[in-house]
Write a structure and sequence with these properties.
Elements: H1 4-26, H2 34-63, H3 67-70, H4 72-94, H5 99-108, H6 111-127, H7 131-137, H8 139-145, H9 147-162, H10 168-183, H11 186-201
Helix pairs in contact: 1-2, 1-4, 2-4, 2-9, 2-10, 2-11, 4-6, 6-9, 7-8, 9-10
Transmembrane segments: 5-23, 43-63, 75-97, 109-127, 147-164, 170-189
GO molecular function: electron transfer activity; FMN binding; heme binding; metal ion binding; oxidoreductase activity, acting on diphenols and related substances as donors
Family: Belongs to the MsrQ family.
Length: 206
């Protein structure tokens, strides 16, 4: 397997973050409502991981290093893991697994529906991230995985609805997401790739 140390490093980093949060909850370092803090952090972690995953292709085009693409699938699966923990934490800490309360929450907080749609999108991407699905779906696989940008929009809307009082942090993530969308425009992506190829072909002066 290529880039084994790089892959392991990404795996360990992604795994340690929620474990550290759980440790903080264990030592009562997350304030009076650690459950809500965990849910919020897992939701934000999902958004950050999604942005990092979407940045892998532009980074590969810019630098030419294939290691970025080598961890893209792993990052996407970690993104799904985080959102699954986010949903599980919401059900446990916020609802207490009282599903009758969910109907009340949906009326009071419709951003939950937006988050659920994002979760379903990530679920579809995680299920079809394997090589078998790539072969089975063919060209449709790429079209399906373009849903990641729609999912990003749903995630940003979900966050915006929650943090309406303080938009500074949200604006940072939204700006990064917009930049990643711009870099995916075919004309811009081709220009970046041509510039990289041109710069790599220029002989180095001794």
């Amino acid at each position: 397997m290529r880039f084994i140390y790089w892959r392991v490093s990404v795996f360990v980093a992604a795994a340690l973050v929620p474990l550290y949060w759980l440790y903080q909850a264990w030592i009562f370092a997350l304030g009076p409502d650690p459950g809500k803090v965990l849910v919020d952090r897992l939701g934000l972690g999902t958004l950050i991981l999604l942005l990092i995953t979407l940045a892998m292709t532009p980074l590969q085009r810019t630098t030419g290093w294939p290691g970025w693409i080598a961890v893209r699938r792993q990052l996407g699966l970690w993104c799904f893991t985080y959102v699954s923990l986010h949903m599980l934490g919401y059900g446990f800490f916020i609802l207490g697994f009282d599903w009758a309360q969910l109907g009340v929450e949906l009326v009071k907080r419709p951003y939950i529906i937006v988050g659920a749609l994002g979760f379903l999108g990530l679920l579809s991407l995680a299920v079809t991230s394997n090589r078998y699905s790539q072969r089975r779906l063919g060209m449709r696989w790429k079209k399906l995985h373009r849903l990641s940008y729609l999912i990003l929009g749903l995630g940003l809307l979900h966050m915006l609805w929650i943090v309406r009082a303080d938009l500074k942090e949200w604006a940072v993530y939204a700006t990064i997401g917009a930049l990643l969308l711009v870099l995916r425009i075919p004309a811009i992506a081709k220009r970046i790739q041509r510039r990289r190829v041109k710069s790599s072909s220029v002989p180095t002066k001794v």
